[in-house]
Write a structure and sequence with these properties.
single chain; 355 residues; alpha+beta; Aminopeptidase; Alpha-Beta Plaits; 2 domains; 4-stranded antiparallel sheet; 8 helices; 27% helix
């Protein structure tokens, strides 16, 4: 395939600057979705829309072919403290584009779109769906989870997130537990009451020390961290209630339900999971796209951070321009050369690929 990469890069960077200038905080992405939908339709493509999710199917869609999803998200976190530049005013300096969402994940949104439009001009052995989804940063139920049932069956997904264009073929899942112990209040000066704080100590120590037996070659062990504790009303009152929160990062060896069931066997306090839906994901190292990525010099790895992969029932690979360490930081930026690398590599990876 003969491609003018510089033209695609120029188009992508221009689109990225336009998107940066439109605030698109999670659950407030309507204007950005409107702009992107109009941009795609101006390219002569039909779009689908549900809420603030926008998608597009490749021409001559054939259900007898496998389908590849290209996905990234248009929402951003709120600007953190410390910005010296204006988060919603794109600026280009020394080969960098600054602005909120430039790295996470605007560069992936625009790079994947240019690749999608380019591949739609060719004949491939697979169908393509491009999906710019919303609410990724908050794992919202009106994001990709609400759209996937509306789409044709998907065999594999490329998820655009800042990975320095290295393929994450496994990703840790997330389960958050709210744990509570009950006691009986009393005056701290007298030998009365039943201190709820003391009732959680053994369970907190268990979460600190317990190790699940199955470890993942890419993701390592399940990680459990007690991150919040709350009890008491004042210094002289024995607390009758103590709560704590546990952040659990699962690997692909366990479902979140399996982890919860095992935890219940070991703790004495009452525990409730906020959700079981954010599962660990995994793609086989033998998948043709993973093997092709390796042939192109890429190194598969396991990602500790969560993305919309957690809500996909089909295998996926997270790969995109930028660095994860720049996400959610002040003066966020993307190098223009990273967008060029992304478009080039995506095309090399996907043109003529088997799904």
């Amino acid at each position: 395939m003969i491609t003018d990469i510089q033209t695609l890069v120029s188009e992508a960077t221009g689109l990225l600057k336009s998107l940066i200038a439109i605030p698109s905080l999670s659950r407030e992405e309507e204007q950005a979705a409107d702009f992107l939908q109009n941009y795609i339709e101006m390219q002569g493509m039909s779009t689908g829309r549900k809420g603030n999710n926008v998608w597009c199917l490749s021409p001559m869609f054939d259900l007898s072919k496998p389908t590849l999803l290209l996905n990234s998200h248009i929402d951003t976190v709120k600007p953190v403290n410390g910005w010296r530049k204006v988060p919603f005013t794109p600026s280009e300096e020394n080969g960098k584009i600054y602005g909120l969402g430039s790295n996470d994940a605007g560069a992936s949104v625009v790079s994947l779109l240019q690749v999608f439009l380019q591949l739609c001009r060719t004949t491939q052995a697979y169908n393509l769906i491009y999906l710019a989804s919303c609410e990724e940063e908050v794992s919202g139920k009106n994001g990709i989870e609400s759209v996937l049932p509306e789409l044709p069956p998907i065999q594999f997904a490329v998820v655009g997130e800042p990975t320095e264009m290295q393929p994450a073929i496994a990703e840790k899942g997330l389960m958050v537990l709210d744990v509570i112990a009950y006691g009986k209040s009393g005056h701290a000066a007298r030998n009365e009451g039943d201190n709820a704080i003391y009732k959680v100590l053994n369970d907190i120590a268990w979460f600190r020390d317990y190790r699940f037996t199955k470890e993942s070659p890419l993701l390592g062990p399940v990680k459990m961290s007690v991150t919040m504790v709350n009890a008491g009303t004042q210094h002289n009152v024995i607390p009758d209630r103590c709560t704590f929160v546990v952040d659990i990062r699962s690997n692909e060896c366990y479902s979140n339900q399996e982890l919860f069931d095992e935890i219940q066997k070991h703790i004495g306090c009452e525990a409730k999971a906020r959700s079981f839906r954010l599962s660990s994901s995994h793609a086989s190292p033998d998948h043709p796209l993973v093997r092709k990525a390796v042939e192109l010099g890429r190194v598969p790895f396991g990602s500790p951070t969560l993305s919309d992969q957690a809500l996909m029932s089909f295998p996926s690979m997270k790969i995109g321009p930028g660095k994860s360490s720049r996400s959610h930081t002040a003066d966020e930026f993307i190098f223009i050369r990273e967008i060029e690398e992304a478009i080039t590599l995506y095309l090399e990876l996907l043109d003529g690929a088997k799904i």
